[in-house]
Amino acid sequence: MTTPPPIIEIVGLTKSYADHEVLKGVDLTVRQGAIHALLGSNGAGKTTVVRTLSTLLKADSGTAVVHGHDVATAPHRVRESISLTGQFAAVDEVLTGRENLVLVAELRRLREPGVVADELLARFDLTEAGGRRAGTYSGGMRRRLDIAMSLIGNPPVLFLDEPTTGLDPQSRLEVWATIRELAGRGTTVLLTTQYLDEAEQLADRIAILHEGRIIADGTLAELKQLFPPAEVEYVEKQPSLEEIFLAIVGHDHDHHDTHAPAAPSNPAKDAR
Amino acid sequence: MTTDLVHDTTVLLKRSLRHILRSPDTIITTAVTPIAMLLLFVYVFGGAIDVGGANYVTYLLPGILLITVASGIAYTAFRLFTDVSGGIFERFQSMPITRSALLWSHVLTSVVANLTSLVLVVLVALVMGFRSGAGVLAWLAVLGIMVLFTLALTWLAVIPGLTAKSVDGVSGFSYPLIFLPFVSSAFVPTAGMPGPVRWFAEHQPVTSIVNTIRALYAEQPLGNDGWLALAWCVALLLVAYALAMRTYRTKVA
Fold this sequence. Notes:
The complex is a heterodimer. By secondary structure, chain A is α/β, with parallel strands linked by helices.
């Protein structure tokens, strides 16, 4: 099996806001057709990377090439090759779901915007809701509409910036299914997430962005090899991605049992 | 490039006009305050204001029209702010469309919405006794002045629309504009104002614009005021446009 060619190549990308250095030299290669996850804590710079790649932000130095076009010198060409789904579902709440799709199809100058819209409504299970204002949609429906809008015109590269943040578990599964389907059709997806299980579930490759640099990049299996060998006091077991992540970023964190129920309230503490 | 701008602006204009059609209350709200002022000044204060024997509704209407525009553009700033804060602005900016098309669509929508509000105000004024024998040309001249004035204030409104951090910040900027007509010849003749106030009133744009519209309605010669009003509107428009575009370029860097 041959390795697919790179479709996104980032070299030495830096970006500062005032005194705060967000990106300190990011290098990353994303290959065609992959789901590549960019994993990092809040404030690690994930959104800055995505905004730079989608021509919304200019880097201080370094280069980024998307689909053969430099984001700094040929931004319009880059915009023809990409779609961005930001952290907040960017839909027009006053328009209906169908009108939102027709709007984007018209802006992308497709010949039959109405047909395109109806196909996408059907594909994303929104046909019934298509005539309702997007403002009345649930979080999951809005996100599906948002992603559907991003697919109009079949851009080869899709940026999904924290696509499941703020969604309930059911909607999250729906979005995951959508992303898997996309990758099946050959779209390259760069996905940012702070959810470790999301990266583990979806991504072919995972890059870890920490303090402005990519500190690890590989398949889940490769990342597992980076995990320090089990120490004597532990019973040897397969590390979860969360443990790998915390080990690599050198987080000062106790190895607690991740399957324990999330922090039940401590009555002793409340009682003072 | 130009045809791209026209195509993209048209598509986005259709979108913002739909917003207006679905919330016609914004047009009515825009017209309510000026109409209330019209009623208040004509039926409450009007009897005590001496405008040299002229019909006070007719005297007051030009200033009220300017106030209508000043309050109407707050909605333009608000709609732009909603796009920016909701993320759809970034969606459009990351698409292969002419980048200024979104601004132009909001600006043109503002002109349409404000003209609709102006028609409402004029209709109420007609009911209250506003009369003019002005011909088609004079009315077209009034329309032209109002469109220029609306464009100038709208480009000004683009700035808070792009930069505001909260909804309150968006609408706050229009209050000074609404009050500017009070210190002009819009409500009372400037002759009775004390020195410095009178100087300000006679040298600020509202006075020349109001005097021009008044003269057009009354079929009087425009004199210097006509050119002065035109110069003010064009100058304001150019400055506001330049500032708005600069703000925009910083924003989308």
